[in-house]
Prior knowledge:
With 398 residues, the chain is α+β, with helices and mostly antiparallel strands. It folds into three domains: 7-108, Rossmann fold; 138-200, ATP-grasp fold, A domain (Dna Ligase, domain 1, 2-Layer Sandwich), CATH 3.30.1490; 204-395, 2-Layer Sandwich (D-amino Acid Aminotransferase, Chain A, domain 1), CATH 3.30.470.20. It has helices at 7-13, 32-44, 57-60, 73-82, 95-103, 112-119, 121-129, 145-155, 179-191, 246-263, 297-300, 305-313, 346-349, 380-395; strands at 25-28, 48-52, 65-67, 85-88, 107-108, 139-142, 159-163, 173-176, 196-200, 204-214, 220-222, 226-231, 234-240, 267-276, 281-287, 327-334, 356-359, 369-377. The structure holds adenosine-5'-diphosphate. Adenosine-5'-diphosphate (ADP) binds next to β9, β10 and β15.
Amino acid sequence: MTPELSADELQSQATPPAEHASARVGIVGAGQLARMGWQAAISLDLDLLCLGAADEAAAGAGAPLLEGNGRDPAALATLAGRCQVLTFEHELVDLPAIVELEANGVQIRPSATVLALAVDKLHQRRTLSGMDDVEVPSYAPVTDLSEVESFAADHGWPVVLKARSGGYDGRGVWICASRSTAGQALQEGQDAGLELYVEEAVDIALELAVLVARSPSGEVAVYPPVETCQVDGMCRWVVMPARVPENIAREVEELARNLAVHVGLEGLLAVELFLTRDDRLLVNELALRTHNTGHVHTEASTTSQFEQHLRAVLDLPLGVTAQIAAAAAMVNVVGPQDGSDPASRLQDALRVPGASVHLYGKRARPGRKLGHVTVCAARPETALTLALDAADRLEGND
Length: 398
Ligand code: ADP
């Protein structure tokens, strides 16, 4: 007769969980980027732990979750204790806590020094403007309206006021046509406790973005640049290849590669750029993580940005970044004003030929990013027309 076993003994006799060959990656953040990172981790059977809230997109898709917040040093320390490498899906983090973890031997990829560029946009501007071969819009830190006015006296109206940290999707960016709108924006920003800087309003011909990965062993892989369109500060669509002359595309790739090497990137870097009407390339913003403008690579390039991010932070061989579709477009799906859920119109969107629909499982709210659609086609215009059609169907637009 089998002797009765205690709960502990039963536990020890149970089939042990499969050991992961890889180190566990801790992702600070649990939104849609972490969710798509989890999709990539499943394919390679990589071990992940996301730091965020239970009602966010990653946990909804079954990603292992540590409940907490990236601004909380204790939560970051717990995550670090349970993972071998820490990386990020957003930059709303307690940077001093990250610096301390790194000083205590935790592998942080990208490093705290590199992450600091994304946390503080003014620090980013200063760093970039000190680099050879990188041009950024003219800028200055401001604390009051007279400083904005004296900047505008040199550079003309309109000017752009920006929050040093905490902004995204156009939040924390105010395009100000006059002294009075600048005064209102300054007040609004300062009431929210934000530190601000001002920059010239660039005469933009089109906006571009490029992604580059660099592994700790120094391997670098640059994706083809994409063309992006912003509506109200939020990305509406992305087209690949960017419809720019070949020499501009090569210059963008070279710039991304140089930036990755110069800062000592470990992980993924997204670079957003302005191409001016007089053909200058200005760097607008860096993000040290997977990026909305990189979603198109999931279908249109050999390796998705989510898989590449994990490969890079685990120092695995980087994936090929070649464009495998002649052309592709990605369109974001945003919550409509009536509060309805795009998921309820999935059937209609799936009738669009070639539409790859990604829904993030988030609660629908007007203006909230809830998914995206990618279409590959022979020509960029065809891809964009079809992707816009599918996104419009999901959003319930006529
Ligand atoms: P966020 O971090 O919110 O994405 P960005 O700095 O990327 O903020 O700005 C959002 C959008 O606002 C840009 O994509 C661009 O369309 C517009 N914008 C930002 N800065 C400028 C500028 N200096 N001149 C003209 N347009 C700008």
